[in-house]
């Protein structure tokens, strides 16, 4: 194909993309039936704020709305190839993401398509500049697609670790606040309500979910047992189990919370000491491989030059 044909093809693809984006934007701007009816049927209206409609999933984004059936089929294919739906569901819950496994697979496909498009664009530019092997370019685009799919999974794991670090940083303060509220005469549910209303963060969100379960009629011990089962952190699991046992058996809850907060602080100190020890070893790398060779070079290079001059 001549460069003119390639330019026409690229221009047609760009024009089609602009048309699809405009159509999707017009569809999004159109108010839905729920948005128009919900303010008139809501039992408890919210003054000063519009109706908040939670998006059911990530598949309602613009790309998923335009290419929804194709993306869903590709997500099903990725699920069949990779599997591991229970593990993905646990990681989504631990990351605090309100999404299903299918929604996550759709996101993986979108990330893969972005990588495929980037690799295909580079391959097209290389083919226009010089003659290139089309098979190699196709393999490169497929590798980019697979890399994008795996990159989304790696990013989910990173999100889980980041949220767990936030929980560990917030845990001692939240536990102490709960202990102070209980020691002041509040019940477990009242103390939990007071702390959740006056704090924010990843752990507060988990405790808010526990409080919502309790208010719907679930026993306090069962709600905290569910939190212990869902948490991937041993310290948080022991905290939830300790609160559940204290509520069921009537043991002093304030002492349990103080002990849990002390355990978390001690674990944080140990982790900090271990991290410092590892950093000491890493600090030796530039000294051994950079500073020491330069020092030896400055010490011996003048002598080598002097010996060469005296030999001549």
From TrEMBL:
Coiled coil: none
Pfam family, one: T2SSF
Transmembrane segments: 6-26, 109-129, 135-155, 281-301
Superkingdom of origin organism: Bacteria
Places the protein is found: Cell membrane
Keywords, sorted A to Z: Cell membrane, Membrane, Transmembrane, Transmembrane helix
Predominant place of localization: membrane
Residue ranges occupied by any Type II secretion system protein GspF domain in the UniProt entry: 176-298
Membrane topology according to the record: Multi-pass membrane protein
Name of this protein: Type II secretion system F family protein
Lineage of producing organism: Bacteria, Bacillati, Actinomycetota, Actinomycetes, Propionibacteriales
């Amino acid at each position: 194909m001549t460069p003119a044909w390639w330019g026409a093809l690229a221009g047609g693809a760009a024009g089609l993309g602009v048309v699809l984006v405009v159509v999707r934007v017009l569809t999004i701007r159109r108010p839905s039936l729920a948005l128009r009816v919900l303010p008139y049927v809501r039992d408890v209206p919210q003054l000063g704020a519009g109706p908040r409609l939670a998006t059911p999933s990530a598949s309602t984004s613009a790309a998923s709305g335009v290419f929804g059936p194709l993306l869903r089929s590709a997500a099903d294919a990725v699920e069949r190839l990779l599997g591991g739906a229970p593990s993905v569901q646990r990681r989504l819950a631990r990351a605090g993401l309100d999404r299903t496994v299918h929604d996550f697979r759709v996101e993986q496909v979108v990330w893969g398509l972005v990588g495929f498009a980037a690799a295909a664009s580079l391959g097209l530019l290389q083919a226009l500049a010089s003659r290139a092997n089309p098979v190699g370019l196709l393999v490169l685009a497929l590798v980019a697609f697979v890399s994008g799919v795996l990159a989304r999974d790696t990013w989910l794991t990173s999100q889980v670790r980041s949220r767990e670090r936030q929980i560990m940083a917030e845990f001692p303060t939240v536990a102490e606040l709960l202990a102070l509220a209980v020691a002041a005469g509040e019940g477990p549910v009242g103390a939990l309500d007071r702390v959740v209303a006056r704090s924010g963060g990843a752990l507060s969100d988990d405790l808010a979910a526990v409080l919502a379960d309790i208010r719907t009629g679930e026993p306090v011990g069962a709600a905290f047992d569910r939190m212990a089962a869902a948490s991937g952190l041993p310290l948080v699991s022991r905290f939830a189990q300790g609160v559940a046992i204290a509520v069921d058996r009537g043991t002093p809850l304030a002492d349990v919370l103080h002990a849990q907060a002390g355990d978390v602080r001690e674990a944080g100190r140990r982790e900090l000491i271990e991290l410092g020890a590892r950093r000491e070893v890493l600090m030796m790398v530039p000294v051994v491989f950079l500073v020491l060779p330069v020092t030896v070079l400055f010490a011996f290079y003048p002598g080598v030059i002097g010996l060469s001059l005296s030999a001549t």
